[in-house]
Amino acid sequence: MVKKKHLLLGAFLVAASVMSGCASVPMASDEKDVAAKTFKVQPGKSNIYVYRNESMGGAVKMEIDLDGKQVGTTAAKTYLLLTVDPGKLTLVSHAESDNTLAVDTKPGKNHFVWQEVKMGVLYAGSKLQLVDEQTGKTGVGGCKLIEVNYMK
Predict the structure, then answer these.
(1) What confidence tens digit (pLDDT) does each residue in 71-97 have?
(2) In the sheet that 78-84 helps form, which strands lie side by side, from edge to edge?
(3) Three-class SS of residue 24?
(4) Cα–Cα–Cα angle for 91, 87, 32, nearest 5°?
(5) What is the pTM of this model?
(6) Which are the contacts of 133, defined by CB distance < 8 A and separation ≥ 6?
């Protein structure tokens, strides 16, 4: 019985460390992070901030696609800044199952997408949710900028 309790405790600790650990993704410089958090938008463009401000699932990286092209990979407490041409775009978060969000960006505006981590059956899942500006700025504020692979 004691051995079984130790085995269960060990399994619990491994699971907890996987759920709260840190994954490594390519980070932007501190200067780029500070500049991105000014929330300035280039003339004729739109910004999309995709942020993941939770610690849950920290050991799991999640790829983000914009209109079918990979733009980056998130980890816990990170965000992507995508400067795009205004219009209808599609974001996809790749996790246990893909989650898709259509975003109709407006010129001169910031758009905030929360990549919520969800419990999956075998692997962490995610859900992309468009949030209001105040919620988005607060969420981004607690995260660090990731280098983006693609700019539209």
Answers:
(1) 999 999 999 999 999 999 999 998 877
(2) 125-131, 110-118, 46-52, 78-84, 144-145
(3) coil
(4) 65
(5) 0.81
(6) 110, 112
